[in-house]
Amino acid sequence: MAERCAVIGVGQTHYTSKRRDVSIAGLVREAALRALDDAGLTFADIDAVVIGKAPDLFEGIMMPEAYLADALGAAGKPMMRVHTAGSVGGSTALVGAGLIQGGVHDRVLVVAFEKQSESNATWALSTHLPFSSSLVVGAGGYFAPHIREYMRRTGAPEHIGALVAVKDRLNALKNPYAHLRIPGIDRKMVESTPMLWEPIRYLETCPSSDGACALVLSSERAVTGTPAWVHGAAMRSEPIFRAGRDTVNPQAGKDCAADVYQQAGVTDPRRQIDVAEVYVPFSWYEPMWLENLGFVAEGEGWKVTESGATALDGDTPWNASGGVLSSNPIGASGLIRFAEAALQVRGMAGEHQVDGARLALGHAYGGGAQFFAMWIVGRDRP
Amino acid sequence: MPSEGGLSAEHVLEFPGGYTRTTGPVIGRFLTELRGGRIVGVRTAGGKVLVPPLEYDPATGDAVTGEYVEVGPAGTVRAWAWVAEPRPAHPLDRPFAWALIELDGADTTLVHAVDAGNPKAIAAGTRVWPVWRGDRTGHITDISCFVAEVTTIVSPVRTVYRLQAGGALQVFLEGVRRGVFVGGRCGGCAKVYVPYRLSCPECGIPMAEQVELPDTGTITTFAINNLPDPRAPEVPFVSAYILLDGSDVPMISLVGGVPAHEVRQGMRVRAEWLPESERTLSMANIRWFAPTGEPDVEL
């Protein structure tokens, strides 16, 4: 990967339960135009478009990339769709970055979206095939047992999840694009909400959001405006049913982190990475991913969360934007993590800016914690 | 009120055929345009467009100008009142809203009925369009009612598949019909996978042999589901990862015969089978896994 790649434009829609005022095409275009505006460019300056979204069953639209080509100014240009379940937003950014790093294009528009209000994701994730008796109900039903196992292994006290649920929602109050805005949220409020998939409470889950996010990626010679430089980019996957698979601390996540750190010259992520946007759709995944991504040793994640280190003013700020727990247009959620990492090192994160952020991590995972996508972006050219 | 049983009679006052109303030129123009399927207002000397038109400007008492302005047909609801129980003379026979509607281009509001379905579907600011009657006569009821703009359509998608169970699944389900769990042992790593499959996901090579596993195992972890599901008998229900004795991968199954909050990681369980006469080629042959009463296993 000889060519350097930079993020030169970031565009987001406001995330909300129902965007009844726009079509899907209108939604993605809103994000795309904001990203182009940020970069001081127009569709005419774009060489190729990469689009990502979660399963087609969410909106019931087959091949959305064909439908959305006009809205994204892609006529006559290469356009492709990426699909890696919940991690797709991250993978989409990485496919776009690959087109720059490989020297194929100078400017790539990357867009990801979900309009969850058009159907119901739990329905779409719980379509039961004949002959099987899978009892998994939605994403929460899948992840709850693995959270329980994390708690057993580490002896983490039960309130840790609530701490993350509060911390991320307090951060969301500083992010104008965030969906869930719960002034005065505290541990008591979270703990008063019902268990949905025990040990996961209602306020420990992500919302269902409509929204889109877009990035303009550029080669070094085509940079405009304020760049966030890509220092490392990695994807990994693993089969969901494999003997000895560690569903609490998946090997693919560890490998993905090791790869991206090696590329970026990171040997001590907790010390070297100024801010991380990590895919935490259920609150307990913060301590779990703190360990999986090597920020802390195994069994130590919950202690770091409990210490407050991951708060906006802590030494290891995670999800300064409010994260997936505050905004979850599923297909876009990974790209939002990557975009927020870029905003931080560009110094453009507004009220939730981490002072002096020079190196930031964007992370996404998907499926049954089978797909991982990560990038590290920096203020300085690598 | 006349007292009960006192002398009383109904008395109707109705001018035969109904009163006429001479419209005059201004109201007449409005109704003539309605009959033509258009809505017009009249401009006042001060430049305002009154809809419905008035003959004299209520602000000044002056005659309005002779300038008629086509407005709408869409407009914006400015205020509304919900009619939960319509009366016989109301324009709609189902609950509706009376609304003050400011038609596009008008400076005043028109009172009309909005067929909103339910009170949550109307608000100040809601955009509405007229529904025209087919046989128009020059009357305000030439507009049957107003309805919201089209903002959503329903797009039913139904795809029907025929799923052919693969050979490996057939082997497994035939075992389940007999009351046996059939797994496969990898020729490379020697791990045992259940349900039976043809190749090892780790090594990528064919399974070396079929293995019949007992119907006992250990709960490795589980969720207590508080959301109802048609496949579970009640809420809460426990969905657990169960590592069958002799297997290297857990299966997800319902746990029963024990209160949800007494289920533990490490708990020993055994499959509860339907009677042989009721079994089919499906996992429904297993009602659930229930505790055996053995001591818990150290995980």
TrEMBL record, chain A:
GO MF terms, alphabetically ordered: acyltransferase activity, transferring groups other than amino-acyl groups
Gene: atoB
Source organism of this protein record: Nonomuraea glycinis
InterPro entries: Thiolase (IPR002155), Thiolase-like (IPR016039), Thiolase_C_2 (IPR055140)
Alphabetized NCBIfam families for the sequence: PRK08313.1
Protein name (Swiss-Prot/TrEMBL): Acetyl-CoA acetyltransferase
Transmembrane segments: none
UniProt xrefs under PANTHER family: ACETYL-COA C-ACETYLTRANSFERASE, NON-SPECIFIC LIPID-TRANSFER PROTEIN-LIKE 2
Domain Thiolase C-terminal: 245-378
Automatic annotation (TrEMBL), chain B:
InterPro entries given in the database record: ChsH2_C (IPR002878), ChsH2_Znr (IPR022002), NA-bd_OB-fold (IPR012340), Thioester_dehydratase-like (IPR052513)
Domain ChsH2 rubredoxin-like zinc ribbon: 174-204
Source species of the chain: Nonomuraea glycinis
Keywords assigned by UniProt, alphabetized: DNA-binding
Segments forming domain ChsH2 C-terminal OB-fold: 68-133, 211-273
An MF annotation (GO) of this entry: DNA binding
Gene3D superfamilies (alphabetical): 6.10.30.10
Protein name per Swiss-Prot or TrEMBL: DNA-binding protein
